[in-house]
């Protein structure tokens, strides 16, 4: 047995695989034949022959991953072999029997206590992750291919435990005192550290970028199944907040192991530390801008775009100029800036302005044709990115529902076929038709081109160099589908997304936002989806103008709010704060605190006929002293269901 292959022979093998992926398919399938099953028919542990087959296949593929082009290799393995169900069957049986084999023939140096799952898992994860990029909703949820939903739940638990073991329990480097198992054949073996590294990456990416995303769309398991119990302890949380600890490193590498609320606390702590570190700079430089209400977006763009990263993190004070050119009265202690943020985000992200479009699900994404509408569209996207970053930095919730495939840009992440239904359901159906077509696809005379249509302007674009001459066939249709989805979801909005991200990251670094998936980022932007907790709001409310916690009018108000439907409770919250959702960690974190102020002159009962009003910039409700609970309920319902009650003064 030679330590390594002859260089010329190695080049010939690589060339053979590179030019003919069927050779790779046949070799992998041949190793399976008569040895490994894709069905869970035998609950006992794997035989010696099965262990030998898995070891051979996984050791071979581990080398292939770093040698051949990944797209070619993964496409062949994911769609032309049964390696995913076969390896899962092997992993599942080993786990259930609590008996993992030693692959000592293939790994060096192998400590006695090295986990037996390391080699198969490091190969299974990247292949299955790649397969899930092109799996459609019907296959995943209805046909339950390639794994059943029941198996997916078990898979999440197994992979989570394996990842926690790699990150927390197993040391990253082999200790000199650890004895390696004997190597009687003298084979050249793989490094265990390279396997650990590949396993860590594969486990984290499969769990975070695919399985957790699928579970967010339509749950197949409890959200808590992704959490590690050890990551919920107070000690772990305090260490993660402290930074430069193993706990903080785990939050960077595998944030989903900790519950969402814990990650929000860490995020809040990071914001507080950032504000404290820039406090001295902020004390010396206070920026005050005059904004015309008639040219809100343009004035804000012209002035705020000039601010540096440090300046953006500091206090920004705004005064409004009315239609007569007169500066409106009032000192901005933070409330007017909150009002400004609510108004400018509403205007800038309005589809009528042309920078953003709306999907069929009524969520926002960058307009691919924004350059046809605004000459400075990319500069505006960078400005809007900094606006959204500033809102999150200051804890200002804004009612902006973004498309998931756009929020992934904040994580510098690509989108795939299963993200397409939200953007273009018709194109998605056409691609599925091609994917499941039983005949000869070359008869359809499709080529690797796509037609863009923006504002009546059509142009044809090649998906690959020479795409106009490249016909879609049964062999390359998966690549075609992947390229079309990539074009619509990633390529078309690459410039807008890149500039938006540049502005956003001036305030919110990538490592902070990487703690959350896209659905959680939406919660950070717009607040909790949970029903309004009236008791929590009451515990965190201030009073003025003669009202106090035990005032009879106040008691009536809380009773009325509790009797409201969930929809009317959200309308009330939007009426008084400008956002229909509450802070993620409760109303203790609402800034400024919600306040109820008595409206009118005390002692004058005629004020009881007035409507309640609000000042959203101060989270303030101005409530007249109504005579009865019924009157209060009628007036409040009228106010929250119309614009009559808004008072931005």
UniProtKB/TrEMBL annotation:
Q: Where is the active site?
A: 617
Task: Name a biological process GO annotation.
Answer: protein polyubiquitination
Give the highest taxon in the source lineage. Eukaryota
> Gene3D superfamilies from the entry?
Hect, E3 ligase catalytic domain, Hect, E3 ligase catalytic domains
Give start and end of each HECT domain.
Answer: 308-649
Q: Which reaction does it catalyse?
A: S-ubiquitinyl-[E2 ubiquitin-conjugating enzyme]-L-cysteine + [acceptor protein]-L-lysine = [E2 ubiquitin-conjugating enzyme]-L-cysteine + N(6)-ubiquitinyl-[acceptor protein]-L-lysine
Name the SUPFAM superfamilies on file: Hect, E3 ligase catalytic domain
A molecular-function term among this protein's GO annotations: ubiquitin protein ligase activity
The record's section on Pfam families has: HECT (PF00632)
What EC number(s) has UniProt assigned to this enzyme?
2.3.2.26
Q: Which UniProt keywords apply?
A: Transferase, Ubl conjugation pathway
The entry sums up its family as follows:
Belongs to the UPL family.
Q: What does this protein do?
A: Probable E3 ubiquitin-protein ligase which mediates ubiquitination and subsequent proteasomal degradation of target proteins.
Q: What is this protein called?
A: HECT-type E3 ubiquitin transferase
What organism does the record attribute this protein to? Aegilops tauschii subsp. strangulata (Goatgrass)
């Amino acid at each position: 047995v030679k330590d390594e292959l002859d260089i010329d022979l190695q080049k010939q093998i690589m060339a053979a695989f590179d030019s003919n992926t069927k050779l790779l398919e046949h070799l992998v399938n041949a190793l399976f034949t008569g040895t490994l099953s894709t069905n869970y028919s035998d609950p006992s542990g794997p035989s010696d022959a099965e262990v030998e087959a898995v070891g051979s296949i996984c050791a071979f593929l581990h080398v292939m991953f770093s040698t051949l082009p990944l797209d070619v290799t993964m496409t062949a393995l994911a769609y032309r072999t049964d390696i995913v169900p076969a390896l899962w069957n092997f992993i599942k049986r080993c786990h259930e029997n609590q008996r993992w084999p030693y692959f000592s023939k293939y790994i060096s140096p192998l400590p006695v206590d090295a986990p037996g799952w390391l080699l198969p898992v490091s190969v299974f994860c990247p292949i299955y992750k790649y397969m899930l990029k092109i799996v459609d909703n019907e296959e995943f949820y209805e046909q339950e291919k390639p794994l059943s939903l029941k198996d997916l739940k078990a898979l999440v638990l197994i992979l989570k435990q394996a990842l926690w073991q790699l990150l927390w329990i197993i040391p990253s480097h082999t200790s000199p005192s650890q004895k390696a198992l004997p190597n009687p054949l003298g084979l050249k073996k793989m490094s265990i550290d390279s396997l650990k590294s590949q396993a860590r990456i594969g486990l984290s990416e499969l769990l975070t970028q695919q399985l957790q995303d699928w579970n967010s769309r339509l749950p197949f398991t409890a959200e808590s199944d992704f959490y590690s119990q050890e990551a919920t302890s107070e000690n772990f949380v305090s260490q993660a907040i402290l930074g430069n600890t193993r706990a903080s490193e785990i939050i960077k590498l595998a944030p989903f192991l900790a519950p969402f609320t814990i990650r929000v606390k860490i995020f809040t702590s990071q914001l507080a530390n950032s504000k404290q570190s820039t406090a001295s700079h902020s004390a010396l430089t206070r920026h005050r801008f005059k904004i015309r209400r008639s040219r809100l977006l343009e004035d804000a763009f012209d002035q705020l775009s000039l601010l540096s990263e440090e300046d953006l993190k500091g206090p920004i004070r705004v005064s409004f100029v009315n239609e007569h050119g007169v500066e409106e009265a009032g000192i901005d202690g933070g409330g007017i800036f909150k009002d400004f943020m609510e108004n400018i985000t509403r205007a800038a992200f309005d589809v009528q302005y042309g920078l953003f479009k709306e999907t069929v699900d009524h969520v926002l994404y960058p307009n691919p044709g924004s350059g046809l509408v605004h000459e400075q569209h990319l500069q505006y996207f960078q400005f809007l990115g900094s606006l959204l970053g500033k809102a999150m930095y200051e804890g200002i919730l804004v009612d902006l529902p973004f498309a998931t495939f756009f929020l992934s840009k904040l994580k510098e992440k690509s989108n795939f076929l299963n993200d397409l239904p939200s953007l273009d359901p018709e194109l998605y159906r056409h691609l599925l038709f091609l994917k499941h077509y039983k005949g000869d696809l070359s008869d359809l005379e499709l080529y690797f081109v796509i037609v863009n249509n923006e504002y009546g302007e059509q142009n044809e674009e090649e998906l690959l160099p020479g795409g106009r001459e490249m016909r879609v066939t049964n062999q390359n249709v998966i690549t075609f589908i992947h390229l079309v989805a990539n074009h619509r979801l990633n390529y078309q909005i690459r410039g807008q997304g890149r500039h938006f991200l540049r502005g956003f990251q001036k305030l919110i670094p990538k490592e902070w936002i990487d703690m959350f998936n896209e659905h959680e980022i939406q919660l950070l932007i717009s607040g909790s989806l949970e029903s309004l907790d009236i008791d929590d709001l009451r515990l965190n409310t201030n009073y003025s103008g003669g009202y106090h916690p035990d005032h009879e009018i106040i008691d009536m108000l809380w009773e009325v709010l509790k009797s409201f439907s969930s929809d009317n409770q959200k309308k009330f919250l939007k009426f008084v704060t400008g956002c229909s959702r509450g802070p993620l960690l409760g109303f203790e974190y609402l800034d400024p605190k919600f306040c109820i102020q008595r409206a009118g002159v005390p002692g004058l009962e005629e004020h009881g006929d007035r409507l309640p009003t609000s000042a959203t910039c101060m989270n303030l409700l101005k409530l007249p002293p109504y005579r009865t609970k019924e009157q209060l309920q009628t007036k409040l319902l009228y106010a929250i269901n119309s614009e009559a009650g808004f008072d931005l003064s």
